[in-house]
């Protein structure tokens, strides 16, 4: 089980990303528009830099929804390999069985 503080920090980042997504997208569109004057694009870049760092989607980390583990994460199932194995062993994932040969 991951530290509760790390899980809560990640939730806070997700809230910030959602909150600033529209503003960040608008500023990026202005900054990348070649038809606008250089000063206006530069001002948009400065405003973009003033936004909180944790509002950037690249700062998000995928975590297991069961344990909060940040590594060995399966995107399709939204859980780590360890939680996946536990659920599969208990028979809680339909169609998944532990292999043996």
TrEMBL record:
<comment type="subunit">
    <text>Part of the 30S ribosomal subunit. Contacts proteins S3 and S10.</text>
</comment>
<keyword id="KW-0687">Ribonucleoprotein</keyword>
<comment type="similarity">
    <text>Belongs to the universal ribosomal protein uS14 family.</text>
</comment>
<dbReference type="InterPro" id="IPR023036">
    <property type="entry name" value="Ribosomal_uS14_bac/plastid"/>
</dbReference>
<comment type="function">
    <text>Binds 16S rRNA, required for the assembly of 30S particles and may also be responsible for determining the conformation of the 16S rRNA at the A site.</text>
</comment>
<keyword id="KW-0694">RNA-binding</keyword>
<dbReference type="GO" id="GO:0015935">
    <property type="term" value="C:small ribosomal subunit"/>
</dbReference>
<dbReference type="Pfam" id="PF00253">
    <property type="entry name" value="Ribosomal_S14"/>
</dbReference>
<dbReference type="GO" id="GO:0006412">
    <property type="term" value="P:translation"/>
</dbReference>
<dbReference type="InterPro" id="IPR001209">
    <property type="entry name" value="Ribosomal_uS14"/>
</dbReference>
<dbReference type="GO" id="GO:0019843">
    <property type="term" value="F:rRNA binding"/>
</dbReference>
<dbReference type="GO" id="GO:0003735">
    <property type="term" value="F:structural constituent of ribosome"/>
</dbReference>
<protein>
    <recommendedName>
        <fullName>Small ribosomal subunit protein uS14</fullName>
    </recommendedName>
</protein>
<keyword id="KW-0689">Ribosomal protein</keyword>
<keyword id="KW-0699">rRNA-binding</keyword>
<dbReference type="GO" id="GO:0005737">
    <property type="term" value="C:cytoplasm"/>
</dbReference>
<dbReference type="InterPro" id="IPR018271">
    <property type="entry name" value="Ribosomal_uS14_CS"/>
</dbReference>
């Amino acid at each position: 089980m991951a530290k509760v503080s790390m899980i809560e920090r990640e939730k806070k980042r997700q809230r910030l990303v959602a909150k600033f997504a529209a503003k960040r997208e608008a500023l990026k569109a202005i900054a990348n528009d070649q038809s606008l004057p250089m000063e206006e694009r530069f001002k948009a870049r400065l405003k973009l830099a003033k936004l909180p760092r944790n509002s950037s989607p690249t700062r998000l980390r995928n975590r297991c929804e069961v344990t909060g583990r940040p590594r060995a994460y399966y995107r399709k199932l939204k859980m780590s390999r360890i939680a996946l194995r536990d659920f599969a062993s208990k028979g809680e994932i339909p169609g998944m069985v532990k292999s043996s040969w």
